[in-house]
Structure to design on (153 residues):
């Protein structure tokens, strides 16, 4: 039969005392509860954050006739948010034909100055567009930024 620490007649080592076991178990249970609460809170905090805001940009469009069959269209960033170059797709609709221009799509558009963002003072040029009535749209994965019907110059 095992005797508790209080009933022993011989001196007991304080490290081996039975009273300390309940305190250690209590501390470990409190730490476990705190860790569980932190994990539950961290898992739920993602749904509390607002979604990313859609960019708003003011764009000025210009067109230049290259020859009798082709024209260039330039889109100027005149104000608003910046957009990463990789997120921009330019869609040119000529009748039923849709041509997509992008940073990773052939044919590419030309961003000036040549950096990774379309920002205030930047311009995007799309070359060799047929000289006819076309619709041009600048889109991101989340929003149509700009859309216009372009008449031949």
């Amino acid at each position: 039969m095992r005797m508790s620490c209080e009933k022993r007649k011989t001196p007991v080592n304080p490290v081996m005392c039975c009273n300390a076991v309940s305190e250690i178990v209590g501390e470990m249970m409190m730490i476990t509860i705190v860790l569980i609460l932190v994990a539950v809170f961290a898992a739920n905090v993602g749904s509390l954050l607002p979604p990313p805001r859609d960019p708003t940009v003011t764009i000025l469009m210009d067109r230049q006739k290259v020859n009798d069959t082709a024209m260039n269209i330039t889109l100027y960033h005149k104000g608003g948010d910046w957009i990463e170059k990789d997120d921009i797709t330019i869609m040119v609709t000529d009748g039923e034909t849709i041509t997509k221009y992008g940073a990773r799509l052939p044919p590419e558009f030309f961003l000036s100055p040549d950096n990774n963002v379309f920002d205030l003072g930047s311009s995007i040029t799309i070359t060799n567009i047929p000289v006819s009535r076309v619709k041009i749209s600048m889109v991101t994965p989340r929003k149509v930024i700009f859309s216009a019907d372009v008449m031949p110059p």
Notes: The chain has a mean pLDDT of 85. Residues 19-45 form the longest helix (27 residues). The first strand starts at residue 57 and ends at 65. The CA atoms of residues 55 and 81 lie 6 Å apart.
